[in-house]
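User: Predict the full complex structure for these chains.
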Amino acid sequence: MERTNIAIVGLGTVGSGVAKLLLDHGDRTARHAGRTLWLKKAVVRDLAKPREIDLPAGVATDSLDDVINDPEISVVAQLIGGLEPARSIMLKLLESGKDIVTANKALLAEHGPELFTRARELGRSIAFEASVAGGIPIIANISQCLSANQICSLEGILNGTSNFIVTQMDEKGASYNDVVRKAQELGYAEADPAMDVDGTDAAQKLAILSHLAFGATVNWSEIPRIGIDGLDPDDLRYSRQLGYRIKLLALANLADDGLELSVAPTLVRIGTPLAEVRDAFNAIRVVGDAVGPVFYHGLGAGQMPTASAVVADLIDTAVGRTRLTFQTLEYFSIGQPPRAKLRDADTLVGRNYLRLNVANHPGTLASITTVLAKHQISIASVMQHEGENGATPLDSVPLVIMTHEATEGSAQAATREIESLDSITGPVVRLRVKD
Amino acid sequence: MERTNIAIVGLGTVGSGVAKLLLDHGDRTARHAGRTLWLKKAVVRDLAKPREIDLPAGVATDSLDDVINDPEISVVAQLIGGLEPARSIMLKLLESGKDIVTANKALLAEHGPELFTRARELGRSIAFEASVAGGIPIIANISQCLSANQICSLEGILNGTSNFIVTQMDEKGASYNDVVRKAQELGYAEADPAMDVDGTDAAQKLAILSHLAFGATVNWSEIPRIGIDGLDPDDLRYSRQLGYRIKLLALANLADDGLELSVAPTLVRIGTPLAEVRDAFNAIRVVGDAVGPVFYHGLGAGQMPTASAVVADLIDTAVGRTRLTFQTLEYFSIGQPPRAKLRDADTLVGRNYLRLNVANHPGTLASITTVLAKHQISIASVMQHEGENGATPLDSVPLVIMTHEATEGSAQAATREIESLDSITGPVVRLRVKD
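Assistant: Here is the predicted structure of the two-chain assembly.
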C-alpha cells in the first residue's frame, strides 16, 4: 500500500491525540485514505519531557530541520499555538514543499491572507477544520456540503469555555469567579482565560466562518464583541424567569445593505436548540437559501474531538481532496474583493433586555418609559420585583425591561439617557435578545 | 472559465430545483467549482407537459440518447425514482462515460453493489448525498469529515413523512388516518405512503449509512423494522405522561459481537435533542470514538433541500473530489468482506414500554408481574388509570409498564405469555425505549 509520510509539529494535547490516532488506528486511516498515513517525525521542544504516548524510536525530534529537510514528508500537522513562532514555522514548512494541517485559529484569523496567498503561490494547501468548533466539521460543511447555497445567517456557540461558565452560573447560581476557578480545575479554562471569556476566541472563529460563508474579509478585531466576563448571575436568573437563557452567541447575518457580525451574551429562548447547548459543547445553526436551517452540535474542544478534525484533514490532504478544494475556493486571497461588507452597527435592529437599579418611588417608571418612547422603542414586558425584606421605599430595586425591535443606535442613545436620570443607580445592563 | 456540461435526467420536483440552482445561481456554483456548471440537457418524459421552470431553448429533450451520445456532457444528475428504468438508465449513463449524481435511495439500497462495482470498473463515480436526509449532508460527514473515527452508533429520524405524522398525532391528539390525509394535502406524504410509514424508507437509508459507517453489507430488507402505521394515539399520550415522545427511530449500534440495526417507533426522553425533532425535519446523532457525539438537524426532504445536496455533489464531481473519494472508499464493492455483521436480534438488550388491556379485578397485576419476573424482567414504573366514568369493575382498563433493560428474546417471550393470560384483552403493545 502506498504511504504518505506525516510529521506533527507540536506534541501538546492535540498533537498527542493526533499521534494516538495515527499510531493506534492505522487500519482506519488507511481505509479512508487508500494509503498508509505514516507518522515519521514529531517535533517537540524538549525531548526529555515525559509524554502521555510512546512514540516509536526515531520519531521524536527537537529539530524542525528534520522535517524541513526530509523530502519524504509531504504533510505536516502544525499544532503550535499562538502567532510566533507558529507563523514563521508554517511559512518555512510551506516553502519546503509541505502541505499543512492546522488547528491554530488565532494564526489564521490574524495572518490568514498572508499564509494562504503564500501557500497558493507555492502550490501547497492549508487545511484548518480543527481551527473552529473542533468536533463539528463546520469548515467542510460550509465550504463543500452547503456549496449550492447562499448562506443567509450563522449563529454559533463557538467558545466552549464561556459556555461551560455560563451553564454552571445559570444552573448552579454560582458566581463568575467561582465557576472560572472550577473550569480551570477541570481543564476547561486556561490559567489566563481572557481570550475565551472576553469574546476574542469566538470573534476569531466567526471571522474565519464569515470568510467561508460570505466572502467577508474582516479582521476579527473589527467584529463588535462583548464577553461573558462581566456577566451578573442576576441577569441569568431574570432571563430564565422571562423564558430565556443567556449564551455567548457569535452571529453573522447577511442583509441587502451588508453583513452583521457580532459576539455578545444574548438571550436565547428556552426550548430552541441553541438555548439547550450545555457546558463545553459548541453548536452552530446555519441557514442556507436552498437547504433551509441546518443545526450542528458537538464537542467544541478537547484532545480527541480536535484530533479527529486534524486527522480527517490529514486524510483529505493525503487523498488529494484538500488541494482541489484549496485551489478552487480562493480562501483568504490577498487582493480578492470582499463579497460582503460590514453593516453600520447603528442601523442594526434587534430586541433588548435592559436591567436597571431604580429608586423605589413614584414617577420612576414613567420617566424611564418616557425616554424609551422618545427613542421609538416600545416595551414588550416589564418585571419589577419587590425589594428585599426590610427594604425601605427609598432603596433601589431592580427593574427588567424587554423591548420590541429597535435600532442599535436608538437603544444606545436611550440607554445613555436613562443612565443620566436621577432615579437610576449605577449602569444599565443591556443585552441582546434573539428570537 | 472552464465549463463542465451537466445533464439532468428526470425533471420532477427535485430535478426542477436542481435546474433552478444551476440556471439562476451560476455565479455561486462557479465560485465553488472553479468552473461553470452548464446545464446542457434535461431529459423529460413528456415535452408538452407544463413545467414550473423555463429552460433555455434546446435544453429540454425527451431522448436519453441526446445525453448518452453527447461526449461533452460529463456529469449527469439522475433523478428518476424507483428501481426500473432508473437502474438501466444509470448503467447506460455510466457506460457512456458519465459520472452520476443521484438522490435515489431505493435504487442504491437494492442495487448499490452492482451499480458501484460497474462504476468502479468503468472509472466513473456515483455521488449520492441527496439519497439520505436531503438537507443534512450526512454522507459526506460520515465518509469524510468523521473519517478519523470508528463510528460507535447512529440514531436517526430519517423519514420526514413519518415524523410529521407522529408529531401531529402527538401535538394535536389526532388519529393516524386524519393526519395522513393532512400530510397528503400538504404534500408531505405520497398518495400511497406505505414505503414511508411502514419503515421501508428509513430502513433503506439506514442500510446506506451503515455501509458507510460500519462497512456492513446488509440488504435493507434484513433490517428488523416496524413502521408508525399501527401507532395508537393512546401510546403517544401515555408516553408523554411518562416523560417521553415516540419517534420512528433508525438505530445502528456497534458492539463486540456485531451490529444492531433496527427501525421502530421508540420512546425518546423529552428534552433530549432527538425528542425535539418536529414535523418534516430529520436528525441524526452520530457517536464516534474520537469526536464523541455529533448531532445534525435539518430538513429531510423537499425540493430545495434535496436540490442543495444534488448540486453540492455536482460541484464535488466537477471539481474532482468525488472521484478521489469514490476510488478510495470501496463503497458497496461486490466481494468485499463486511467489516461488521448483524447481531442476533434475540440477544439485544433494551428497555420496553408495554401497554395491556387488563381486567379490572384482583390478581391481574400479580399475574402479569409474575410472568415478567419469571423472564428476569424488572419493572421501572407502572401506570394504571381508573376506567372511564361509568366503567364497571369488570371492564378492562389500560395498564402501562416501563421495564428495565431486558434481552429482546425474553421481552418477546414474556409478551407472548402475558397475551395468553385470561385477564388480558387483545394484544400487548410493546415499544422500544431509548435512554
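Chain A touches chain B through 57 residues (CB under 8 Å).
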